[in-house]
Amino acid sequence: MITLPDYPAQLRGAGLRVTTQRVHVLDTLRQHPHSSADTVFASIRDRLPGISAGTVHGVLNDLTAAGIVRRVSLPDIGSALYELHSDDNHHHVQCVGCGRVEDVACAVGAAPCLHPSHDHGMRILEAAVTYRALCPECERNAHG
């Protein structure tokens, strides 16, 4: 049996009020990781009549600031994507054809897993790697 995350406890643990909007945004990201704010809004607006795109943006900003959600910025994508924040150290692979994004486990180890040749006196927190690729469907379409 699959157990669903306890969103209210997660929100309270991060010092946030539990709201229907926040719970719906979290559940949408669980079902559809790597979603833009517009995609999240489109996914929940029928279930939450009266919710606005601005509210979804605000909720995503609050959840990101609280460390519950991670903002992912990738090349050639006009807006940030969001995923539930996990304690794993992972990167992303992005299809340059259709834009599909998938998680890729870090091959090196714990965050930040990669170290720059010079940190300029800064403490490195994370290293983000994006593998640019062509998914099988786009490859078939390009050669078909």
UniProtKB/TrEMBL annotation:
Gene3D superfamilies: 3.30.1490.190, Winged helix-like DNA-binding domain superfamily/Winged helix DNA-binding domain
Keywords: Cytoplasm, DNA-binding, Iron, Metal-binding, Repressor, Transcription, Transcription regulation, Zinc
Localization terms from the record: Cytoplasm
Superkingdom per UniProt: Bacteria
One Pfam family matching this protein: FUR
Keyword Transcription: yes
Family: Belongs to the Fur family.
Identification of the protein by name: Fur family transcriptional regulator
Organism: Microbacterium bandirmense
